[in-house]
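FYI - complex with magnesium ion, inputs then prediction.
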Amino acid sequence: MLKITKAEFITSAASKEQFIKTEKPIIAVCGKSNVGKSSFINMLANRKKLAKVSKEPGRTRLVNYFDFGEFVLADLPGYGFARVSKEEKLKWAKLLDTFFAEKNAAHVFALCDIRHEPSADDRQMLEYLYYHIIPFTVIATKADKLSKAAAARSIVNIAAVYKCGVDNIIATSSETRQGLDKTLERIQSVITVD
Ligand SMILES: Nc1nc2c(ncn2[C@@H]2O[C@H](COP(=O)(O)OP(=O)(O)OP(=O)(O)O)[C@@H](O)[C@H]2O)c(=O)[nH]1
Ligand SMILES: [Mg+2]
């Protein structure tokens, strides 16, 4: 099992010129505002405050890079936040599209809230991934908020929307650390080149 021995903030990128180049595989974390991206990263890092968690959605407006030793994690800006201007939304969409088009990520963790039907923005993000042929794993967050049976039903639904198998979805909770081992196994297989 992969052991995370290092988790350090590297830098933030506000534009494509600032995207970093590295020999290490980059795993990107994406999902709508408030879905739990930063909390998920902190769970992996086993740190409380590596990535900023906020009750107010839409706070992560940059690509934040973290060095995890054998790989780099990129925390992408959350999309689908209502209270931002049209221009700002377009700017984010362009930034994300360029990020994927330039093949910056070897793998993507696409986060969605296990309690909610995937949104139009989630489907748009999925289109980017399929269009640019970027392998992804769905992380169904906040699993602590549902019963086991309800979580299982939700995962079947998410698999249908994301056009993937249920095996490609990991139910997680940053509160209970459910799904951490499965996620580490997935990272291990993603970063192992054989
Ligand atoms: N119950 C529960 N709450 C969670 C979980 N993960 C995140 N939250 C809460 O959801 C809210 C948003 O979490 P963040 O990790 O900041 O979400 P984010 O996706 O990084 O948000 P932005 O950076 O604004 O796009 C916070 O109040 C968290 O405490 C989880 O697994 N379970
Ligand atoms: Mg965040």
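The mean pLDDT is 91. The domain at 8-191 is CATH 3.40.50.300 (Rossmann fold).
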